[in-house]
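User: For documentation purposes, I need each entry recorded in a consistent format: the amino acid sequence on its own, followed directly by the corresponding structure tokens. There are two entries in this batch. Please keep commentary to a minimum and don't merge the entries.

Assistant: Recorded as requested. Entry 1:
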Amino acid sequence: MTLTEAAAERVRSVMARSEKPLVGLRVGVKNGGCAGMEYTMEFAEEAGRFDEVIEDKGVKVLIDPKAILYLLGTEMDFKADKLSAQFVFNNPNQTSACGCGESVAITPVQQETTGAGA
């Protein structure tokens, strides 16, 4: 997972204003919405035991272990216009999205197995 410069700047800005010390942004997915899944984001005060931790453009991203195969290859962006500002996930594993853009259908990356007996 990577971040655009706009996403990294927004995360850094929000974290800098936090009253609590934060280690990074936790990203995941959950079941819900009309397309089947929704992205989740929350600022984290500590890393979870099984979180996948990446650092990109000075931002630490903690990926929920249940979401790793859904988020491989994803780029997180931040877009702002006159009416809204939001994080956007450019996910190659996403197969469709609902009309409002709040939920998505995502196919997990298939792990390749090698060797005999796999």
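Entry 2:
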Amino acid sequence: MNLNTNFEDNTYLIESLKQGDEKAYSHLIEKFHKKLFIYAFSLTNNKPLAKDVLQNVFLNVWIFRDKLDSNLSINNFLYTATYNEFIRQYWKNQSTKDLENKYAQALNEVINETDEKTIETLMSIVTQEIQNLPKKCKKVFLLSKEDGLTNMEISEYLEISIKTVEAHISKAYCIIRKKIGKKTSSILFLLFPNNKTS
């Protein structure tokens, strides 16, 4: 019995993967790539997206190989992983679309009421106000808006309580609102368009 024939055995294949056997990984890709691609394409109806889905599935199998369960059917596992990755990609794309729509809406709201020069002035004022924030307040605010971290992530990263994080963010908002009023949210979104919490 040669090595590739051994890999036809579900348990042996998974155990080999768990041990970091690159030949087992190559066998896995060679055996399942074509039919999984067909399945991914049937879900996405988009070849580039189907390729992305499949690439992530196989990459994750390798990265998290030590967590594979030898008792599971590798066939069923891969199909489930492909479906789950499709769902993840779908919602990611959907979130991006929602974000783009939100950005366009914020831009339109400001433009409808404000000329371009005033918008630039407002953005400049907000940028300056952020720079003038107390040191800790500024750090928390930028971690939230610029880096897109959640309050929980900021709390863990800075080793402070969530209430402290919330207090710093509220303080920053109050300071900015005093300067530019009701346009605060729209201007912040224009400054930090990739942040979902703006």
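Summary note for entry 2:
The radius of gyration is 24 Å.
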